[in-house]
Amino acid sequence: MPSSPEPRPSQGPELLLHRWSQSWACRGRYPPLDCLPFMEFDLLTNPRSGKGEGPARAAAIAAELLRRGHGVQIHAGQSAEDAALWAAAAAERSQRLLVVGGDGSLSAALQGLPQGCPPVLLCPLGTGNAMSLELGLPSEPGQLADLAERGRTQKVDIGEANGRRCFMVMGFGMDGEIVRRIEERRSGTMRKTDYLPVILKTLQAWTPEPQRVWIDGEDLGEFDFGIVANVSTYGTWALQLGPCEYDDGLWEVYLVRRADLPGTSVAAGAALLGSLRHAPGVVHRRGREVIVQGTEASPFQVDGDFGGNTPVNFNLPGFQLPLLVPER
């Protein structure tokens, strides 16, 4: 008897993957690129990233991995909570996890990853791609498939801010207020140029509330603005915080005593010139625990998302995220 035709998915990334899998390249007409062992890959795509290009980009990467003889599953995340649930489940069944999206997509998945999870590859797509720029990640599907197969694993110390995991930065004061205002006005995909009016208005109209800061038990006094970071750049390659080690068990802390226009301008100028840590009025430390608390509350952000208002307790719980990165 003739076999029944294979059922076809009706919509979403599964349909895109089906179309790719029926293409010339995926029917085995090309020889395998090498003799790498079979691996299972799980892809998370954010349907809203990159002006809706997430599912198509995920399907292209999946097709490349299928062509090389691997197993692939795609999940279209519906919310931050859904992404965390995907991460927990995928970590149990696959050898590599791929997040197709921006910093927000990786942050959402991070919340569900277990200790000892498989290596994770960030496939950049979206407005915020600070981490992919930091690590020098490619965006072309073939190059991403190469990294998924053979990339070097870089351990990254993960922090927690009031219990929420973060991989890149926690900021309080003006930093948190800018993110709060952006989220308040955001109705869809934003371009990086959309941030500038919000930043300028915040500088002109917002009054900071000084916050007392303790680092590993040491009282450093009051500051208007601070960044706790495990990256060397801040939002863009043009703003250089200073060197850092991703896996040394410490995060860098940069504190600005006065976040008025002169103080902020000096700090921004130093970052543009290559290092914030040496700017006048900036205190730099390294630590495992940072407590921020003031007489009045101050907003804070975590990896580009509004986190609430101080007090905030930041610490390193010992969790390390294995990220796939290019060879040095």
Description of the molecule:
The protein has 328 residues and is an alpha+beta fold. It folds into 2 domains: 12-150, Rossmann fold; 164-317, Tumour Suppressor Smad4, CATH 2.60.200.40. It contains 9 helices and 20 strands. A 6-stranded antiparallel β-sheet has the order 7-6-19-16-9-10, with no helix packed on it. The protein has a 6-stranded antiparallel β-sheet with strand order 15-14-11-8-17-18. A 4-stranded parallel β-sheet has the order 2-1-3-4, with helices on both faces. The longest helix has 14 residues, at 54-67. Residues 1-10 and 18-33 have low confidence and may be disordered.
Top CATH class of the largest domain = Mainly Beta
User: Outline, from the CA principal axes?
Assistant: globular
Distance between the termini: 56 Å
Contiguous helical run count: 9
* Helix and strand pattern: HEHEHEHEHHEEEEHHEEEEEEHEEEEEE
- What is the count of structural domains? 2
Structural class: alpha+beta
Largest sheet: 6 strands, antiparallel
Count of strand segments: 20
How are the strands of the biggest sheet laid out side by side? Answer: 7-6-19-16-9-10
The average pLDDT is 85
Beta-strand portion reads 25-35%
